[in-house]
Structures are given as C-alpha cells and as structure tokens.
Amino acid sequence: MAIELFFNGVLTLLSSPASVAIFFAGLVGGLLFGAIPGVSMLTLGAIFLPFSGLLPASDAIMFYSVLYCSGTYGGAITAILFNIPGAPENAPTAFDGYPMTQQGRAGQAIGAAVTCSAIGGTCSVLLMMLATPMIADWAISNFGPPEIFALVLFGMTVASSVGAQTLWKGWLSVLLGLIVATVGLDPVAGIERYNFGSVYLLAGIHFIPLILGFFAIAEVFVQAEQRITGRYQLPIFNTAYPSLGDFWRLKIAVVRSVIIGFFSGVLPGIGATLAAFLSYNEGHRWSKNKSNFGHGELEGVVSSETANNAATGAAMIPLLALGLPGGALTAMMISVFQMHNMEPGPLVFVNSADLVWVVFAAMFFANLSILLLGWLETKTVLHLLRIPFQFLALGIIVLASIGAYAVRSLPMDVFVMFIAGIVAFLLRRSGYSVAGIVLGVILGKLGEQNFAQAMQMVTYDYLAFVTRPFVAILLAAAVLTVSGSLIRAFKA
Predict the structure, then answer these.
(1) Residue 239: what pLDDT?
(2) Which of 14, 231, 328, 422 shows its CA 20 to 30 Å from the CA of 218?
(3) Which three-class secondary structure state does DSSP give residue 193?
(4) Where are the transmembrane segments (predicted)?
C-alpha cells in the first residue's frame, strides 16, 4: 500500500512540466539562498509565500518540501570554503570544514558534506514514510519542556570540551554564550535584562549577526594578522573527493548522526540547528581522534551535515501528524496548507493522503538530487579559493554586512557583527572556544524557555521534575559527562 502511494506521489510530481520546473526551482533556490550568509532558505520561502496560493496545492507544498532539503545543505559550502556558515545549522560544519580547506582538503570536506547530507536526508525521509503517525504520537507524549531542558543541559556539558585549550576555558566559553542569551526580555515575566536602556536590545541579540561576526569577520582578522606577521599561506587547491574507505571508516558516525538528527527533528522547537550541534558534540565524545576535532577532522563534517539533513524529514512528522511546526519553514508550510483549505493533523492522512505522499516523494528525490548538484557545485565554487586574499576579504566583509543587515533591516545588527568579530578574534588567540560560545547562545534561550515551562508544569516541584524517566536519564548523563571531564582535567 505504501509503495503504491509513493508511486502515486511520484506521478503527481512528474505530472506536468510546470511541476518539474517548480521542483528544480526549489532545489536550486535552496542551494543558492542557503549558501548566502544571512539570506537563508527562509528568505526565499517568505518571498514565495504570497504566490503559493496561485499554484495547485501539490506544487506549492512540493516547493517548500524541496526547499527545506536543499536549503539545509546549501550553507555547508561557504562554511567549508570561507568559514561563513550560510545558516545556523551549518555552523558546526565550519569547525572542521574550514581547517580542512586550509590544509588543501576542501574537495574532501565538500564531498563528505554532499554525500552525508544526501544520506541523512534520504534515511530521514524513509523513516518518515514508514512511521509518521506512530513516531509523532510517541515523541509528543514522552517529550515535553522538562525533557527538552534536560536534553539542552546535556548538550551544554558536552559542548564545554569542544575546541578550547582547557576544560575551564571551555566552560567559560559556554557561560559567555549563556550570558549573551540572557540579553533582552525574561521569557516568563517580561522583565528587561542587560539592555542598558537600549530599545534595540529588548529583542535580544540576534543570532545571525553574531554568527557572521564569530566566523566571517573573525576569520578576516585572523588572516590579516597572519599576512602582517608573514605567516599567511595561500589555500591549497584540491578537488579530491573522499574515498569509499573514508566513508566506511565513519559508518558508525553516520548512523549515530542519522539517529540524533531524526530524533531532534521529531521534537517541535528543536530542529536542525540543535541536531547539528548535538551530533557534532557526540562525534567528538566517541571519536578515536578527539584531539583532531576543530583542526580538520572529517568526522566533524560528517556528524554535522548528516544530522542537520536528517532533521529535515523528521521535522515533517509533527507537522503532518499533529499540525505542530518544528521550525520557521515548517510554520510557513502550515500557511500553505491553510491557503488551500487544508489543516495539517491526523485527518490530513485521510482527507489529503495524495498530497502527503507528494511531500514524501519530493523530499526523497530532492535528497538524491543534492548528490549531483552538489558535485557540480563543488567543481565550480572551489575556484573561488584562487581569488587573492585582499579581494576575497573585502567580498566577505561586504557579503556578511549585507547578510547581517538583511535579517531585520537594522544598522545596529551590522555593528553587533563587527563587535562579535573582534571579540571572537581575541578569544581565539587566547584559546577559548567559539563553538562553545555559539552553542551557549543557542541553548541558553531554548533551555531557559523550556525550564520555565517545565517548572510551571510540575508546579515548581523539583522532585516531580527529576522523577520523569527521560529527564532522569539525561540529567544522569550530564552529571557523568561533567565528572568524566573533571577527572581527565585533574589527571592532566
């Protein structure tokens, strides 16, 4: 039955030249917009939204499904080549992808990103087709704000050991990110915090200017310093792809990242960004080459890109089965359903089963298409490394400034980006972890919001909070992680 429905979805996808054209528009548009810092797939989705009501329902929903897959991968290219993540979910890819570029292994890094993006996305879609209603019901009934807070806390304990010279600098990096996350309004009482009388800071510090400063601007400063001191080396141009042996060596990392990404995508509000960071952290935890992480370890790229693409298919599960969006783009898809007089939820599998399977088929073929388009893209964009630094640095600064301004059209975001770049440059020289700061910012807001909701759920009874099974397991894992890190630090 499922196979028949899938083939019906494929036939709908290929029913007309217009449908095929819309499929490729979403595919190419996601790759291009995902690769432009600050201008993500959400930008294209928002532009296209008013026009989606003019299209047949199947074409409109297919466009957003394909855009979600290709846009998540697109940001990996600039993350690897220039240390500029196209989107937050590609930030962990830069931690090892860019050092690989500096070592002349850009082709290997991009090849791994392309292949593992396709693997993660395809596995996620297959799992989505097999068990959407069942998995959605399980996730919603077993995972609420208490469990999500415990998951966030566990992620922070692992993040402290990634990219810093010492454990203490790792913890300070995460805590600095948490401090930045508190700027703005308290999520419960709406109390102003650390805004220093500025109206701009009431909304908090936006993540896109921060990440552009931490990566793009800081990297320009680092390379400029290297040129001044005579330590600058031209990037080595190499288009060699990873071998089959490389992928076989990392097979466990791929499977682990698919599971983490899929699980994170099923939970509303978690999404691809946290999936990528959690998978990167777990890759570091279980790797035999821990010391290589942050210095050009292929497993870091594989862990991040497999997980963030695995989260795309999984995020459709709560959307379709329960009508709960897992992120901004899936929230747009709810609007598309409503434009065509449909409401996502359990009845959508009864009333609009044909459209659901169009989504499944479109995402399946989109992930397969990423392999071919990603390969062609790699062969062309790698030539950007031949551009002299003085021109490339100017282009990076201009592009990053446009990206920071485009988010909210606020000049202050551009200033925040440059301040973040200077701070990240100084912290990197001192051995602190930019990865830890970024993760602290992301997890801080998510963790605080879910902790407040969790306390309200258990009426501020901490014992009831801890007795929830999944909360207890995740908190125990966090305690063991911290204990192990402390023991290793004292032994060293």
Answers:
(1) 63
(2) 328
(3) strand
(4) 20-49, 61-82, 109-136, 148-168, 199-222, 258-280, 313-334, 355-375, 387-407, 414-442, 462-487
Short-list 479, 475, 484, CA closest to 148: 475
Token reading at 418: 């440059």
Residue 287 structure tokens: 């790797």
Residue 390 has which token pair?
């003085």
Residue 299 CB burial class (10 angstroms; 0-12, 13-18, ≥19): buried
Residues in the chain: 492
How many other C-beta atoms are found inside a 10 Å radius of the C-beta of residue 170? 23
| 184 secondary structure, DSSP code | E
The CA distance from 163 to 169, in Å, is 9
Rounded CA gap, 472 and 465, in Å?
9
Distance CA 123, CA 114 (A): 14
Tell me, what DSSP letter sits at residue 214? I
Beta bridge partners of 185: 192
Q: What is the mean pLDDT of each run of 10 residues along the chain (492 residues)?
A: 67 80 88 69 75 83 87 82 78 88 84 87 84 65 77 76 73 88 82 83 82 82 80 64 81 91 76 82 83 86 90 79 68 78 70 78 86 72 70 80 80 90 88 80 81 83 80 85 80 74
Residue type, 364: F
Cα–Cα distance for residue pair 219/395, rounded to 1 Å: 13
Helix (H) or strand (E) run with residue 192 in it: strand 192-193
What digits encode the pLDDT tens for the residues 399-455? 788 878 877 888 888 999 899 999 989 988 888 878 778 778 877 887 888 888 888
How much is the pLDDT for 349?
67
Locate 437 and state its tokens.
């700061």
CA-to-CA dists, residue 277 to 91, 162, 263, 284, 439, angstroms: 8, 11, 13, 11, 7
Helices (H), 323-352: 328-339, 348-351
Predicted confidence at residue 233, as pLDDT, reads 65
CA dist., res. 435 & res. 428, Å (int): 10
* Angstrom distance (rounded) from CA 30 to CA 157: 33
Q: What angle do CA 363, 369, 372 make, to 5 degrees?
A: 160
Distance CA 439, CA 443 (A): 6
* Distance in angstroms (rounded) separating the CA atoms of residues 320 and 334: 9
d(CA 117, CA 119): 5
Residue 188 three-state SS: coil
| Residue 90 near residue 312 (C-beta atoms within 8 A) | no
In terms of Cα–Cα distance, which of 147, 182, 83, 137 is closest to 434?
83
Quote the CA–CA distance of 356 and 299 in Å, as a whole number. Answer: 34
- Of 206, 207, 178, 180, the C-alpha closest to 194 is 180
